[in-house]
Amino acid sequence: MENEMLPPQAEDRTAFDAMCRRRLQENVSALEQTLKLINADQLRQAAELLHSARRVVCMGQGSSMVLAEEAWTLFSTISPKFVFISDSHFQLNSVALMSQEDVVLFFSYSGSTRELQDVLAVSRPLGVKVILVSRFPKSPGGQLADLVLQCGSNEGPLQVGSATARIAQLFVLDLL
User: Which of 19, 53, 80, 114 is surrounded by the most beta carbons within 10 Å?
Assistant: First the structure.
């Protein structure tokens, strides 16, 4: 029973502190990268689109869907015109019923998901504006979106959905 609450060994504490400092530096670096990458004109245009839209649908897939829900949570306290749709089929149905007065706010770190490309294929002929929050403005989605708000953080192939990438996207959301 007395072994249950032993204090960590000094070397364990040092390794733990070093790991915490590395994660902190990765997060700070992601925020700094985002600040360098974000285009002030596009951010202003995105804010104006969101403000003037009749309806804004927040979308994403996987861990980016959580960010879309966070955007909806934040903005829905300001206006009821913000909605969140998680299911990719309902996302497409919703976009098909939208008009030029509506906006899609899509979160996709890669900008290359199939769901994003499907949304863009439906939205473009209808004149629905799409704002994409992504790391890669030259991705397939970035090439077709009306505005790309670029975030920092380099995510490795085994880090899909890393907290650092989400922090960078949350920073963009906070700037909006």
Answer: 53
pTM: 0.88
What CA–CA distance (Å, rounded) separates 121 from 65?
19
Neighbouring residues of 44: CB distance < 8 A, sequence distance ≥ 6: none
DSSP-derived 3-state class of residue 168: helix
pLDDT in tens, 19-76: 999 999 999 999 999 999 999 999 999 999 999 999 999 999 988 999 999 999 999 9
Angle CA 120–113–117, to nearest 5 = 15
Q: How many helices and strands in the chain, by DSSP H and E? A: 7, 5
The crossing angle, in degrees rounded to 10, of helices 88-96 and 114-126 is 10
* pLDDT number for residue 119: 97
Q: Is 57 helix (H, G, I), strand (E, B) or coil?
A: strand
CA dihedral defined by 57, 96, 94, 44, rounded to 10 degrees? 0
CA separation, residue 159 to residues 11, 85, 163 (Å): 27, 25, 9
Residues 6+ apart with CB under 8 A from 64: 107, 108, 109, 113, 161, 169
Q: What is the pLDDT of residue 157?
A: 46
Number of residues that this document lists for the chain: 176
Residues sharing a CB contact under 8 Å with residue 53, sequence separation 6 or more, in sequence order: 81, 101, 102, 103, 129
